[in-house]
Design goal:
Blueprint: H1 3-7, E1 10-15, H2 19-33, E2 38-44, E3 51-53, E4 56-60, H3 62-72, E5 78-81, H4 86-97, E6 105-106, E7 109-110, E8 115-116, E9 120-122, E10 127-128, E11 133-134, E12 138-140, E13 145-146, E14 151-152, E15 157-158, E16 163-164, E17 169-170, E18 175-176, E19 181-182, E20 187-188, E21 193-194, E22 199-200, E23 205-206, E24 214-217, E25 222-226
Parallel strand pairs: 1-2, 1-5, 2-4, 5-6, 7-10, 8-11, 9-12, 10-13, 11-14, 12-15, 13-16, 14-17, 15-18, 16-19, 17-20, 18-21, 19-22, 20-23, 22-24
Antiparallel strand pairs: 3-4, 24-25
Length: 228
Amino acid sequence: MSDGERAEGLDLVIIGAGGHGTEVLSYIGDLGREGARIRVRGFVDEGKAAGRWKGSEILGGFAELEAFLEYEGGQAVRYITAIGDNRAREACVCKIGRLKPRPPEPWTLRHPRSIAGADVCVGPGTCLAPGSIFTTNVHIGSHCIVNVGASISHDTELGDYVNVNPGAVVAGNVRIGAGCYIGAGATIIDRVTIGEWSTVGAGAVVVEDLPPFVTAVGVPAKVIKRHR
């Protein structure tokens, strides 16, 4: 939580009014109880009608978001995506980048019960959920999700749009490419590289490098599907 969020406050829109959206809203409530001043202006979701939702508002889709931003004028509004599907999250970020006259900037959510050691770098738009742990010298890309109870060890790098699901364990010196989906309870042993846009199934144990665009499951993890 930055000093600016404590003193000046933050206006925020959440992209995605689904299950992860409700989690993000809850995390923001936790930040508020720690002293952050974050005002959620509403949710953006192409699949839901505008109106009250979960104690907040659905503004509408991206056209309504653009109108909302224009109405706000010079007031700074930030956004965070709350969409578990990595491709859908990437597509939403691209749509936001095309908004006029000026797209909003992404905001990074660090839950107060997320633990980060020395030299941990987190990209814009990323969500660090409660109980997530980052030891030291870890680099997390933009618009990632590191979920409840996941742990990332030393000297590990995650590319943009990675989703690490609850309870996953990523050991040291691991490289996870952009867009990868690491299932709940999966384990990635040390010095493994996972190619971009690959999926590791829930509970899998990855003991050797995986190429890009594959799905791997089991103990030890084996490739069962190639996406290209």
